[in-house]
């Protein structure tokens, strides 16, 4: 990789084989180097290909203002999310994480901390992303000699959720509200207290989140075969209370989202409701 322009000791501009500009970041990647020389590619943390002038300016401003340490930390978090949890994240998440972590460390060193008003919801409904957030603050605390709190784990998780939802972060609030309301129907209809830390409840929440995404995507239409009808009849006979509760959920969804649950939807809803209530 050949240097076209040196931004600082840790960042350069180069071009790929299609003559597209790339901004490359890595610790001491340009130290002692000059334009037209090559760099040690093993030192690279991140390669950006700005899609617009605005993106380019944002990245260059960050390179000038934020220590390279935070780019490295953000890379480790993104790598953790993608490798351990198979979460696909965009460059915008990397940028947002880098900026957020840098700001968080500055705040905590100044004696300031922020309260995350969605911490309970993130922890309860997005446990995978929250665990990554917890891992991330342990990394930051060790590398930067600070003590970030669980609130910050929630904020980092929210950035990861944002990356998963793309430009649809508003859906986070809608999905949380949907899960809350369906859970309330189950607890009220069956007069039970659900163990929200249980594996079965986590599976139920995951099912609801996937169902929400499917329900909002009107381009997909499923064809229900006889097998689903037969299985629903069997489940209905064995899990009467759970089935009746699923019918309440169906009515709620029909009224509020103008979506009619199919027999297959009812089958899965009934199975999940039975799992989270049978052990209570």
From TrEMBL:
<dbReference type="GO" id="GO:0003723">
    <property type="term" value="F:RNA binding"/>
</dbReference>
<dbReference type="InterPro" id="IPR011608">
    <property type="entry name" value="PRD"/>
</dbReference>
<dbReference type="Pfam" id="PF03123">
    <property type="entry name" value="CAT_RBD"/>
</dbReference>
<dbReference type="Pfam" id="PF00874">
    <property type="entry name" value="PRD"/>
</dbReference>
<dbReference type="InterPro" id="IPR004341">
    <property type="entry name" value="CAT_RNA-bd_dom"/>
</dbReference>
<protein>
    <submittedName>
        <fullName>PRD domain-containing protein</fullName>
    </submittedName>
</protein>
<dbReference type="GO" id="GO:0006355">
    <property type="term" value="P:regulation of DNA-templated transcription"/>
</dbReference>
<feature type="domain" description="PRD">
    <location>
        <begin position="171"/>
        <end position="280"/>
    </location>
</feature>
<keyword id="KW-0677">Repeat</keyword>
<dbReference type="InterPro" id="IPR036650">
    <property type="entry name" value="CAT_RNA-bd_dom_sf"/>
</dbReference>
<feature type="domain" description="PRD">
    <location>
        <begin position="65"/>
        <end position="170"/>
    </location>
</feature>
<dbReference type="InterPro" id="IPR036634">
    <property type="entry name" value="PRD_sf"/>
</dbReference>
<dbReference type="InterPro" id="IPR050661">
    <property type="entry name" value="BglG_antiterminators"/>
</dbReference>
């Amino acid at each position: 990789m050949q240097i076209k322009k040196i931004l600082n000791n840790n960042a350069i501009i180069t071009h790929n084989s299609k003559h597209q500009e790339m901004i490359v970041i890595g610790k001491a990647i340009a130290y002692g180097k000059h334009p037209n020389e090559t760099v040690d590619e093993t030192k690279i943390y991140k390669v950006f290909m700005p899609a617009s002038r605005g993106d380019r300016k944002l990245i260059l401003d960050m390179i000038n203002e934020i220590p390279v340490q935070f780019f490295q930390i953000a890379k480790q978090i993104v790598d953790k999310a993608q490798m351990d949890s198979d979460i696909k994240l965009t460059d915008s998440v990397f940028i947002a994480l880098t900026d957020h972590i840098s700001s968080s460390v500055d705040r905590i060193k100044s004696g300031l901390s922020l309260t995350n008003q969605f911490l309970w919801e993130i922890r309860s409904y997005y446990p995978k992303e929250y665990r990554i957030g917890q891992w991330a603050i342990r990394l930051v605390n060790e590398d930067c000699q600070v003590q970030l709190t669980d609130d910050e784990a929630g904020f980092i998780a929210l950035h990861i959720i944002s990356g998963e939802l793309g430009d649809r972060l508003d859906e986070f609030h809608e999905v949380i509200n949907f899960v809350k309301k369906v859970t309330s129907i189950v607890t009220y209809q069956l007069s039970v207290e659900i163990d929200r830390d249980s594996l079965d409840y986590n599976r139920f929440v995951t099912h609801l989140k996937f169902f929400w995404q499917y329900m909002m995507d009107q381009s997909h239409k499923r064809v229900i075969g006889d097998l689903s009808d037969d299985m629903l009849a069997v489940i209905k006979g064995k899990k009467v209370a759970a089935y009746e509760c699923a019918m309440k959920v169906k009515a709620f969804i029909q009224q509020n989202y103008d979506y009619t649950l199919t027999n297959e939807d009812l089958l899965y809803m009934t199975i999940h409701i039975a799992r989270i209530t049978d052990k209570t």
